[in-house]
Specification:
Layout lengths: L1 H19 L4 H18 L1 H14 L5 H27 L2 H7 E5 L3 H8 L4 E4 L6 H11 L4 E5 L5 H12 L4 E5 L5 H8 L3 E4 L10 E6 L2 E6 L1 H9 L2 E9 L6 E5 L11 H18 L23
């Protein structure tokens, strides 16, 4: 009975989300920031995680400022969730009008044609990261691949996959599966949309500083880039104020990356992400337990 009620609730939520895609983006933005204020008060566990992360990363920032930053973050985060209605159901023409592209979006195509090297699009966890994937699929012809976290409910998992694959030139692979299909896809010429900055435990990770705190950080960007001779191009996403659209910045490829030193490469990526966070701190995903995994013998931080 409980499972039936849960599925009915999810179907209702999906139906409401579908209806929202007809609204102008400024209306969705206003709704998102309004609901975000409410969630800041109600989502106690996520609020505590966010405040703890900010205290660890910005210890010199007054507590009142950290709370104000996190309140703003909840607004941006909620808006990004509602924006998915547009990304999943609106017409490609409407989505293109809403995305502002900066930088070289065609780097991957050109590299594949001239050097045969695949590209890794490195996209840190800003709240608009889904827009980055859509910008790649709509704005250039190079086929893409990525990894996704399987959703706990089959209906939500199906919706997530359908939304991210709707433009047809992408493959996504569950994080829990073998990496071999992903490697094969990259070798066949697909660009890899890679999210490098979440805590997935000790496996294939190294502890390197993130705002001065040792953080379990995946070594995959360095290892894959070296193994497959990849060009690594950072992609930074931003939600523009008051629903004016989204900005996606395709930055120049990282120079002298990767090296033979995986730990040094991984620490360098964290420093790069820190610099980007300082440009738009309220839009980084602070409600993730970035420091959940601790070095041997170190006390927990949450």
């Amino acid at each position: 009975m409980k499972a039936v009620a849960t599925e009915a609730g999810i179907r209702l939520a999906i139906g409401m989300l579908w209806l929202l895609h007809w609204l102008p983006l400024p209306w969705l933005a206003a709704l998102g920031h309004g609901v975000g204020k409410l969630l800041y008060r109600l989502a106690g566990s996520r609020r505590r995680v966010g405040l703890r992360n900010l205290a660890l990363c910005f210890p010199e920032m007054p507590e009142a400022e950290r709370r104000a930053l996190l309140r703003a973050h909840f607004g941006w985060l909620t808006q990004s969730l509602l924006d998915r209605a547009v990304l999943w159901w609106a017409s490609p023409a409407r989505i293109k009008r809403l995305i502002q592209i900066e930088g070289d979006i065609h780097l991957a195509e050109r590299e594949m044609q001239t050097t045969g090297r695949p590209t890794m699009w490195l996209c840190p966890h800003f709240v608009g990261l889904d827009v980055g994937g859509v910008a790649i699929l709509l704005g250039q012809k190079q086929p893409a691949a990525s990894i996704y976290q399987t959703q706990s409910h089959p209906l939500m998992d199906k919706l997530m996959k359908r939304g991210r694959l709707r433009f047809g030139n992408a493959e996504i692979f569950p994080r829990s599966d073998s990496v071999k299909p992903l490697l094969r896809a990259i070798k066949e010429g697909r660009g890899f949309f890679n999210l490098p900055d979440m805590d997935f435990g000790r496996k294939d990770a190294v502890f390197v500083p993130f705002f001065g705190i040792p953080a379990a950080t995946l070594m995959a960007p360095s290892r894959l880039a070296r193994m497959l001779n990849m060009v690594v191009q950072p992609v930074i996403t931003e939600l523009l104020p008051k629903g004016q659209g989204w900005r996606v910045r395709f930055l120049p490829p990282l120079a002298d990356f990767p090296t033979q030193d995986v730990t040094s490469d991984t620490a360098r990526l964290n420093r790069f992400i820190e610099g980007e966070i300082l440009k738009q701190p309220a839009q980084y995903l602070w409600v993730h337990k970035r420091f959940k995994t601790r070095p041997e013998g170190a006390p927990g931080l949450y």
